[in-house]
């Protein structure tokens, strides 16, 4: 798709979502790992390309949810390759093929239209 084309409607939420202004707070990998949906006193977070999204309101990321494997991590590589394998839930993605990088960018766009950005992974090199 050429850069000048409008963004596809397929990434728009079915119901309008009002999002807070994005935050740029540094969040350590250790803190991110504690936000995996298992502690009711912490939000459920997922990072993509070093940007952290609060997915707490989506049960799919809860401990019994189909996407829980992503919670508390930066699963950029897994999202790019459409994988639910724990070993693929890691932040590195630079060596992927262009098609997979496009899929990752689409996931980032999808998340950015639905979930609040609450920070950045501290020291992230995969942005």
UniProtKB/TrEMBL annotation:
Top-level division of the source organism's lineage? Eukaryota
Q: What is this protein called?
A: Cytochrome b5 heme-binding domain-containing protein
Q: Gene3D superfamilies given for it?
A: Cytochrome b5-like heme/steroid binding domain (3.10.120.10)
Residue ranges constituting the Cytochrome b5 heme-binding domain according to the UniProt record: 27-122
Could you tell me which residues belong to the region Disordered? 1-25
| Basic and acidic residues bias locations | 1-13
Gene Ontology molecular functions? heme binding
**Family named by the database record:** Belongs to the cytochrome b5 family. MAPR subfamily.
Q: Which SMART domains match?
A: Cyt-b5
Where, by residue number, does the polypeptide cross the bilayer?
none
Q: Which Pfam families match?
A: Cyt-b5 (PF00173)
The UniProt entry's GO CC annotations, sorted and at most eight, read: endoplasmic reticulum; membrane
Q: Which InterPro entries match?
A: Cyt_B5-like_heme/steroid-bd (IPR001199), Cyt_B5-like_heme/steroid_sf (IPR036400), MAPR/NEUFC/NENF-like (IPR050577)
PANTHER family assigned to the protein according to its UniProt record, in alphabetical order: BINDING PROTEIN, PUTATIVE (AFU_ORTHOLOGUE AFUA_4G06240)-RELATED, MEMBRANE-ASSOCIATED PROGESTERONE RECEPTOR COMPONENT-RELATED
């Amino acid at each position: 798709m050429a850069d000048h084309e409008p963004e596809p409607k397929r990434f728009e939420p079915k119901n309008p979502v009002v999002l807070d202004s994005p935050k740029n707070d540094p969040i350590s990998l250790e803190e991110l790992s504690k936000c995996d949906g298992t502690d009711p006193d912490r939000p459920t977070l997922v990072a993509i390309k070093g940007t952290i999204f609060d997915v707490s309101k989506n049960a799919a990321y809860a401990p019994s949810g189909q996407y829980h494997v992503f919670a508390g991590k930066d699963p950029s590589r897994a999202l790019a390759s459409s994988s639910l394998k724990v070993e693929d839930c890691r932040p590195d993605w630079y060596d992927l093929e262009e098609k997979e990088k496009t899929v990752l960018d689409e996931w980032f766009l999808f998340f950015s239209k639905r979930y609040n950005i609450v920070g950045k992974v501290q020291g992230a090199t995969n942005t």
